Amino acid sequence: MRKFIDKIKPSFEKGGKFGFLHSTFEAFESFLYVPDTVTKRGSHVRDCVDLKRIMIIVVVALIPSLLFGIWNTGYQHSAAFGLDWGFWQMVWYGIVKIIPLYLVSYIVGLAIEFISAQIKGHEVNEGYLVSGMLIPLIVPVDVPLWMLAIAVAFAVIVGKEVFGGTGMNIWNPALLCRAFLFFSYPSKMSGDTVWTGGVSRYLSEGTAYADGNGLVDSFSGATPLVHATEGLDGLNAAGDTFWNMFAGIIPGAVGETSVIAILIGAVILIWTGVASWKIMLSSVIGGLAIGLLGNAFGTTPEMTVPAYYQLVMGGFMFGTVFMATDPVTSAQTETGKWIYGFLVGALTVTVRLFNPGYVEGMMLAILLMNTFAPLIDHYVVSASISRRAKKISKKVKIA
Amino acid sequence: MSDNINLKRGLDIPVKGTAVRQLKKAIVPDIVALKPTDFRGLIPKLLVHEGDRVLAGSPVMADKADMSILFTSPVSGTVREIVRGEKRKLLEVRIEADKTVEYVDFGVKDPGKTSPEGIRSALLESGLWPALVQRPYGIIASLQTAPKAIFISSFSTAPLAPEIQFSLQDEAENLQAGIDALARLTDGGVHVSFNSKETGNNPFKGLKNITTHYFSGPHPAGNVGVQIHHISPIAKGETVWTVAPHLLAAIGRLFRTGRLDLRRKVAVTGPKASEPSYVEAVAGFCMKEIAGMYDGKADEIRFISGDVLTGTNVGSEGFLGFFDDQITLLAEGHYHEMFGWGKPFRTRKFSFSHTYFSWLTPGKKYAMDTNLNGGVRAFVMSDVYGKVLPMHIYPVYLIKACMAGDIDKMEQFGIYEVLPEDLALCEYVCPSKIEIQSALSDGIDLMMKEMA
C-alpha cells in the first residue's frame, strides 16, 4: 500500500500529470498515513495530537446519539403506524432512513471541501468530518434529500469556505445548514408531522415504508416542546414524562432526543478536553435560570413547566454539548466562555417561553451567540489588558 | 519559603535521555566556530581575516550598531574559514584551535572594588558583554540604558536540561564574583530564582548580594522570562537583563583569573544519545567531537544545540551555540504512520491532551522524534495554549497580532514580556501545528524595526 502511494505520488506533485489534483491526493494520503513531515523551525518535537484526532474524538462522541437516533427513528415509525415492531426491525428502518442522510451530507459537503481546497491549493481541512456527522442528527428524519443537499452546500460554501475554511468561520456550519432548511422550507422543517419517519410521505402519497393500517388514532407527532405550550398537563397527556424525554423516546430531530446518549458524548468531550465544560455548564445554568424565572411568574402554561424540563426537551442538550462548544465559533477566552454559554442557555429558554409560534430556540440562540462571541472576547480581553496595565503601573520599583 | 510562587500551568515533556551526573570526557576541540546567528538582531562586523592568529579572548567580530561590543575567540589558534550564506551574510568564523590554549591576559580584578565603568569595559573587551541578554526582545544588552534589574534563573525546567547542581558544582566562587560584578551595573539588584522543590546542592545557595525568589511547577517555571513576569513585569520603556548561569560563571572567572574561559559542562542528552552524560567543552565546539556518543548513523540524527523546544538544528558537523550548555540528539521522523491519528492507542507517542491514553502512564519516558505528527492548519482550539503558559497573557491573541504585524496589538498583548522560548510549549501542544515561536520571533523583529 505504502509502496503504491509512493509510486503514484510524483504524478500528483506540482508539474506532474495530475498536478491539479494535488490537494485531493494529499487529503487521501494524510487520511491513510500520518505525513512524514518533520519539524523545521521552532520546537523540534511535537505533541502527537493533531486536528484529525480532535475531530475523530467528536465523531466518536456523537456515535451514542447516532445509534440511539437510529433506533428511535424506527421506534417512532412503529408507534405511529401501530406496527408492533421488534428491536431489529426498528433498527433496520432507522438505518434505511438515516444512511441516505449521511451519504448526502458527506458526499456534498466533502466534494465542496475538496474542490475549494483544490482551488486555493490548500490541504483539505478535516472540519467537515464533524459537520457532516452533525448535520443528519439535527434535521427531521423525513427531510427530502435534495433539500438537504442544497442546505449542506449553502452551509459549507457560505458558512465556511468564503471565510477561508475551518478555523476562520463565524457560524457553526451544521447549524447554518439547519437554519437554511428552516427558513427556506419551513413546511418541511416545522409542524407536527415532520419528526416521525414516513409520516410526511404517508400524508402526501398515502404510502410509507411500512404503513400497516395507517396512522394510529392517537398519533400526534408533535415534539414535547409543542406539548409544553399547554403546560405540564399537556406534556403528561402526550406521554412525555421527564424520564421518557431524558431517555429520548420522543419525536424530534434524529440525534437530539436522548439526553442519556448526549451525556455519554459530553463525558467523552470533557474528558478529552476537546470541548469546553465551561460552556456546557454555563449554558445549563443559563437555561435553568430563565426557566426558574419563568416558573416564578408562571403567566403562560409554558412558563409553568418546571425549569429542569427545559433541559431535556428539544435540542437543548444536543446544542449545549455539541454545537455551542464548537471551538471555532464559540468564545475564545475562558471568561468569555462562561458568558457565552450562559447566554446561549438563557436565550434558548427565553425563545421557548415567549414565542409559541416557533418553540425551538436552540438553533437561533447559538447562531446569535456565535455572532456575538468575538464581541464578548473583545471586552474580556480589553478588560484584562487594562487590568494588567494598571497592575504594572502600580508596581513600584523593586528592590 | 512563604513567598514561593507556585505555577500550575505548564508541562514537563517526558522525553528520554536525561544526562547522568557524570563527566564522560573533556573535549579538546580541533575547530571551534563563532556564530553571529546566536545573537538576536546582531549585524556583525568582521575584524579578522582567514589565516590570522588569535588568542582566547582576541576580538573576532564586533556589533555594527556599537563597535565597542566585541565577540572574541574562545580558543587560541588560527582563523581557518569564514563561512557566508545568502547575500554574503556572515554565518560562522571557524578557528582551528591549538592543543594548549593561550589566553589574552585581561588582568585579575576585584569586582567589588571596580567601578561600573571598569566592569563594563572588562566585559566588553573580553567578549563577555554579549552574554547579557536584554529584555524586551532578547537582544544584546545596550550600553546606553541601565537595566531595571538583572535576573538569573538558577534552575532550568526545559526538557533534559543540565542540572546546575552538577554542571556548576565547583563554581560557587565564580558565580559570586560574577554577581558582584553585575550588581554594580544596575540599581535594581541581582535577582536569583530558585526551585523551591529542588534537592541537592545548588551552587547559588548561600551566595551574597542577591535577592532570592522561589518558584515551583512544571516547565516553563524555570524560564527567566516567566519568573520576571511574576516578580516584576516589564512595562513599556523598561529594560531588564538576564544571564545564563554558566555564562555568569564565565564572567566571574574573567575577574578572578583575568582570562576568557568559556569552558562549560555540556549535557549530551536525548533519545539517540547512547550514554546521556556530560562532557567538558568550550563554546562553539564541533558536533564531530561527540562521535561515539550516539546510536545510529549521524545523518539520521538531528543534532540540536540546546533543548528540544528552543534549540537550533546545527547538523552533524555544526557547532555548539554561545548560550547553550546542552546538546539533544533526536531521531529524524521521516516515516509514514498508517492511520496514526485514528488508532485508539499509540503507546510510543506522548500527548498532553487526553485524546490519547498517554495520561495513563504518567511516569513513562518517550523516545520522541522530529515528526510533526500532523498537518499545518489554522488556529482551531482556543484553550490548549493557556494550559501550558503560566503568564497573564493571551497567547493566541498575541500570536495572531504578530502574524498580522499589528504593533499596537502586540504591545497590548504583552510582547515585551515574552521571548519565543516562553511560548515554546504552546508550539509543542498546538494541534494545528502552527510555528508559534517563529511567528513570535518575526513579531519581535518587526517591533524592533518599527520602534527603533
Topology:
The complex is a heterodimer of chains A (399) and B (452).
Chain A: H1 2-12, H2 22-32, E1 33-34, H3 51-80, H4 87-120, H5 127-134, H6 145-159, H7 173-184, H8 186-189, H9 199-205, H10 224-228, H11 231-237, H12 242-247, H13 259-272, H14 277-297, H15 307-312, H16 316-323, H17 334-354, H18 362-394
Helix pairs in contact in A: 2-4, 3-4, 3-5, 3-13, 4-5, 4-6, 6-7, 7-18, 13-16, 14-17, 17-18
Chain B: E1 4-6, E2 23-26, E3 31-34, E4 44-46, E5 53-54, E6 59-63, E7 66-72, E8 77-84, E9 90-97, H1 116-126, E10 133-135, E11 139-140, E12 150-153, H2 164-167, H3 172-183, E13 190-195, E14 210-216, H4 224-231, E15 240-242, H5 245-257, E16 263-269, E17 277-282, E18 301-305, E19 312-313, E20 326-331, E21 337-338, H6 395-404, H7 407-412, H8 424-429, H9 436-451
Parallel strand pairs in B: 1-14, 2-17, 12-13, 12-15, 13-14, 16-20
Antiparallel strand pairs in B: 3-9, 4-6, 5-8, 6-7, 8-9, 10-11, 10-15, 16-17, 18-19, 18-20
Helix pairs in contact in B: 3-5, 6-9
> Biggest sheet of chain A, in brief?
none
Q: What structural class results from the helix and strand content of chain B?
A: alpha/beta
What is the tally of helical segments of chain B?
9
Q: What is the ordering of alpha helices and beta strands of chain A?
A: HHEHHHHHHHHHHHHHHHH
Mean pLDDT of chain A: 85
Overall pLDDT of chain B: 91
Beta-strand content of chain B: 15-25%
Give the overall silhouette of chain B: globular
Strand order of the largest sheet of chain B: 1-14-13-12-15-10-11
Principal-axis shape of chain A equals globular
Helix-strand category of chain A: mainly alpha
- Helical content of chain B stands at 10-25%
Helix % of chain A is 55-70%
Which residues of chain B form runs of ≥5 with pLDDT under 50? none
Rounded radius of gyration of chain A (Å): 23 Å
Rg of chain B from C-alpha positions? 21 Å
